[in-house]
Design brief:
Elements (H helix, E strand, L loop, with lengths): L20 H8 L3 E5 L2 E4 L1 H20 L3 E2 L5 E3 H7 L1 H4 L5 E4 L5 E4 L4 H11 L8 E10 L14 E11 L2 H21 L4 E5 L9 E8 L5 E6 L5 E3 L21 E4 L6 H8 L7 E8 L2 E8 L6 H8 L4 E2 L2 H6 L16 E6 L8 E4 L5 E6 L8 E3 L17 E16 L9 E3 L5 E3 L1 E8 H12 L16 E5 L5 H16 L4 E4 L5 H11 L3 E5 L7 E6 L3 H4 L5 H8 L3 E3 L2 H19 L4
Parallel strand pairs: 3-7, 15-17, 17-20, 25-26, 25-27
Antiparallel strand pairs: 1-2, 4-6, 5-6, 7-8, 8-24, 9-10, 10-21, 11-12, 11-21, 13-19, 14-15, 14-16, 18-19, 21-24, 22-23, 27-28, 28-29
Helix pairs in contact: 1-10, 2-6, 2-10, 11-15
Length: about 600
């Protein structure tokens, strides 16, 4: 491809509102352009990257026996109402009506649609298992889209769904997909961490996320520094404490006046104490009962763990609920409540002395309270995990990492098959619901993840299997006949050897051409300039590309960093580039 004829318009200026490296460089490099908040066009060079990512995902899905389909992006509301997600996912759905008044949604995900398809055709155990996948546009009504492709309102995902007669069959497929995901990210040189995860609105009991560590991400996970166990902060458990608790009521409590001060932050300033000296009390309603949950002032309740511990969904109490238990919102505490309020505590409260709690009276708190002065029914792991907490598996210390989720796999069970009537007849003639699995990858998000992993503010470093071109050919002076002629010979020979090359044949300064090469992020650069008079050309390597191949054999690394100057000989140059390409191709595509 000749730059002078290509649709490529790079920019020197950092885009307004671009807060991370991938957002800024992808816009500046003309890979994408913004149409609206959270909505992006893929321009020619960006679409080349997208297609390469897409191809690898397809190859690995095909390899495990999955069949590709394409489902509509526009869904009728009926299926979503059958599963209940028309209401439960309302906050992220684009809902609309046609001219007849019928309700539709732009697909945020496709569990309902794929299950409906299978329910119409699969009737017997003889048809199972089956794996169906698609790569399709998705829509989510993000209130604050940001980060470019990281949190968008329209994006591309790969969805794989599996259908089984038994949990054992699902387990085998789950492991196959797990391995396929590892191969996908390895082939793209993305350093992922696999963590146990919460299934969220998709549902299911078992799930794993594939995370890349980056400050640009909006997720977090913890990893044990001792045993290596990794898990999402949403469900991370801590080492179970040995609790030796006996209720020891304190009959004379010291009450202090705290006018219009009800948050821990305000109390810290008012009483000149640290946040860990307070105990937060949060009132929840569970069916017709109330639960008061206690947590140390510098910790937060993890409602996912809380709901799982209680075996029930919960909602925060409102003002009417506080009146029923004779307390005051903002000043609730565990002492002096009605007997129908169950008091449970996070481990962080155990052992605390001289703490401050709400007095169930407007503008008042108790001070000098000890943990055993509180009538606690039970202690449990109920708070969000923190740096330095102890791993529940081995007792080692957790470390928290910011991360970007790239893939998520679930064991769904019969969550969708039962409400959508996806049943099969087993060997004994019994009718049973199909057992399902669900496996997603953020295709467009992967592009941002690669950039965030290896790039800086002015230079992208694509990996071998994601680079839009393998070689960037610069002709310093295109008007120089010798440089131009020699450049064209190399250009044609690279194409004949199936090496993707972008020839910068523009009448621009060398500085502009080099800056564009760095910004665009192509691995290798051949420079044709004045050294041609001494029978030399320059071979450069993208400064970040070596990082992307750090796990390859030492011979390949030596090939990447060997002499930057080679004798001018078309065959020698092409042979060198071809040799490096073949070695990398073998290394990264050996599974195909």
């Amino acid at each position: 491809m000749r730059y002078s004829r290509y649709f490529l318009f790079t920019s020197k200026e950092k885009p307004v509102g671009a807060l991370n490296v991938s957002h800024s460089t992808l816009l500046r490099g003309n890979f994408i352009s913004q149409l609206s908040a959270g909505i992006y066009n893929f321009l020619p060079i960006g679409f080349r990257v997208l297609k390469k990512v897409w191809k690898i995902i397809e190859e690995e899905m095909d390899r495990i026996g999955a069949f590709e389909v394409l489902m509509p992006a526009l869904h009728p509301s009926e299926l979503w109402k059958k599963t209940g997600r028309w209401e439960t996912m309302d906050n992220v759905m684009f809902k609309l009506q046609d001219k007849k008044g019928s309700e539709f949604v732009l697909g945020t995900t496709h569990e309902e649609i794929i299950t409906d398809i299978v329910s119409k055709f699969v009737k017997s155990y003889k048809n199972l298992p089956i794996l169906l996948y698609q790569i399709q546009v998705k829509f989510r009504d993000e209130i604050r889209p940001k980060g470019g492709l990281i949190r968008a309102r329209e994006f591309i995902m790969k969805d794989l769904y599996s259908f089984h007669t038994s949990w054992e069959c699902l387990d085998r497929t789950y492991q196959d997909v797990y391995n396929a995901y590892q191969r996908i990210f390895r082939r793209l040189s993305i350093p992922v961490e696999v963590v146990e995860a919460f299934s969220g609105p998709i549902g299911g009991d078992v799930s794993h996320e594939f995370m890349v560590i980056t400050n640009a991400g909006e997720d977090k996970f913890v990893k044990c520094s001792k045993c290596g166990y990794s898990v999402s902060t949403e469900i991370a458990q801590v080492f179970k404490k040995k609790i030796d608790y006996g209720y020891n009521p304190k009959y004379e409590l010291q009450k202090v006046y705290t006018p219009n001060i009800c948050s821990v932050e305000e109390l810290v300033n008012f009483l000149k104490r640290e946040s860990k000296d307070f105990v937060k009390s949060i009132l929840y309603k569970m069916n017709e009962r109330y639960v008061l949950v206690l947590v140390r002032g510098d910790r937060e309740i993890n409602e996912i763990k809380l709901s799982k511990h209680l075996g029930s969904d919960l909602v925060l109490a409102n003002e009417e609920d506080f009146e029923k238990i004779e307390s005051i919102m903002g000043f609730v505490g565990p002492i002096g409540l009605k007997e129908n309020v169950k008091i449970i505590s996070d481990y962080s409260v155990y052992g605390l002395r001289n703490i401050i709690i709400g007095a169930n009276e407007k503008d008042y708190h108790y001070i000098g309270v000890d943990y055993d002065n509180i009538p606690i029914s039970e202690f449990a792991d109920l708070s969000v995990v923190d740096d330095g907490d102890l791993c529940f598996k081995c007792g080692g210390e957790y470390r928290i990492y910011p991360a970007l989720e790239l893939g998520h796999i679930f064991k769904l069970g019969t969550k969708y098959s039962e409400p959508l009537n996806a049943y099969f007849t087993d060997k004994d003639g019994k009718i049973k619901p199909i057992i399902m699995g669900c496996y997603g990858i953020g295709v467009t998000r992967i592009i941002s993840a690669i950039v965030e992993s290896y790039s800086d503010e002015n230079s992208i470093s694509w990996t071998f299997n994601s680079a839009p071109f393998f070689v960037y050919l610069i002709t310093i002076n295109i008007d120089d006949e010798t440089q131009s002629t020699f450049s064209e010979r190399i250009y044609n020979q690279l194409i004949e050897n199936d090496i993707e090359v972008l020839w910068d044949d523009r009448k621009e300064s060398a500085g502009i051409k080099f800056k564009d090469w760095e910004l665009i992020g192509i691995p290798f650069c051949i420079v044709i300039g004045s050294k041609i008079s001494t029978n030399k050309v320059e071979l450069k390597i993208n400064k970040g590309f070596a990082k992307t191949v750090k796990n390859v054999d030492i011979e390949i690394l030596e090939s990447l960093i060997k002499n930057l100057f080679v004798d001018v000989n078309v065959d020698d140059i092409v042979f060198l580039i071809k040799d490096i390409y073949v070695q990398l191709d073998k290394r990264y595509n050996e599974y195909v």
